Amino acid sequence: METILELAGLGKTYPGGLKALDGVDLAIRKGEIFALLGPNGAGKTTLIGAVCGLVRPTAGTMRAFGHDLATDWRAARRRIGLVPQEMATDMFEPVIRAVTYSRGLFGLAPDAGRIEQVLRSLSLWEKRNDQIRTLSGGMKRRVLIAKALAHEPELLFLDEPTAGVDVELRKDMWRQIGALRERGTTIILTTHYIEEAEEMADRVGIIDKGRLLMVDEKAEMMARLGRTEARFTLAASLGRIPPALGDIPVELDNGGRVLVYRGGDGTGKGKAEVADLTKALIAAGIDYTGIDVHESSLEDIFVQLIERGEVAA
Question: Does 303 fall in a domain?
Fold first, then answer.
């Protein structure tokens, strides 16, 4: 797939020595949704600010749509949209005027049809003459997206787009983001909500302390790092693992009252081995009173990588 954004060795060090970005290498493909995950202060917003011209990097290079962002930023920037975390507009401005003004900032001629299309797609048309301050939190968030879409960007950054909105509105925003991708917009999403990445992203990057710990296809990441854990509560304690269980990776816990399986690879192998273990226990005459099976989620993988703090191969 075509690469439309490429970061190489990108760094940002603030006065005093704080490294907000530390040698970030990243390539974004046309038409994908890329989720950038990380704790507070990990460098997500700094990375977005560097690409959008709000933060000046201290190291590395950035290229977007074939343009060097250090020397030819104007040509590339008009093809990039940004939805920031915070409102940065006159709250007394009517919605339609704020969105129209955003289009003009990029030197584009007025286009009432385009503005209407954007507002209708975000269910804002009926609110077009309302002052932004009168809108709900979810509607204000949609205004931010409308402002970012007014100049028809090909690459859209969404910095915590659903922060502070309720679950129903969050799922509605997911549908809106999916519709944008279907229309050909490439999306880079930063979020604290791991389920957003699981729901929408094609690829996931995990960043901490300015360093990218991993970038991979979501499905590949789950397959490579996902695990299955099953805990069998036994009717009677065991002193050792019976040979009848063969090579299944199990261990005893809680004084021999719990048999624990940990294995699999996120592709279903673990579930198959748990089924084999169940059959082996029955065949060996080992009774159990309960079983608890847990499949790794993307959140489990995220926490694991952050705790290790190591770049995954």
Answer: no
pLDDT in tens, 117-126: 999 988 899 9
Residue tagged 């063969």 (tokens): 246
Radius of gyration, alpha carbons of the chain: 24
Residues 107 and 187 in one domain: yes
Q: For residue 142, give its domain range.
A: 3-223
Total tally of structural domains belonging to the chain: 2
Is residue 221 within 8 A of residue 66, CB to CB? The reply is: no
Whether the Cβ atoms of residue 22 and residue 209 lie closer than 8 Å to each other: yes
Q: Which helix (H) or strand (E) holds 308?
A: helix 298-308
Residues 192 and 255 both lie in one domain: no
Cα–Cα distance for residue pair 107/191, rounded to 1 Å: 31
**SS3 assignment for 237-257:** CCCCCCHHHCCCCEEEECCCC
CATH number of residue 77's parent domain: 3.40.50.300
Q: How far apart are CA 192 and CA 171, in angstroms?
A: 15
Q: For 272-305, what is each residue's pLDDT tens digit?
A: 888 888 888 988 889 999 888 877 666 677 777 7
For the stretch 201-216, pLDDT in tens is: 899 998 888 999 888 8
pLDDT tens digits, 184-201: 899 998 876 777 777 788
CA 51, 54, 55, 59: dihedral to nearest 10 degrees? 30
> Mind listing the pLDDT tens digit for each residue in 149-168?
899 899 999 888 776 666 77
The mean pLDDT of 109-137, rounded to a whole number, is: 92
Q: How far apart are CA 166 and CA 154, in angstroms?
A: 28
Which positions ≥6 away from 224 have C-beta within 8 Å?
Answer: 216, 265, 266
Length of the chain: 313
Distance of CA 262 to the CA centre of its chain: 27
Q: Which element (helix H / strand E) includes 12? A: strand 3-13
CA distance 241 to 2: 53
Which tokens is 23 given? 């040698």
- Domain identity same for 211 and 238: no
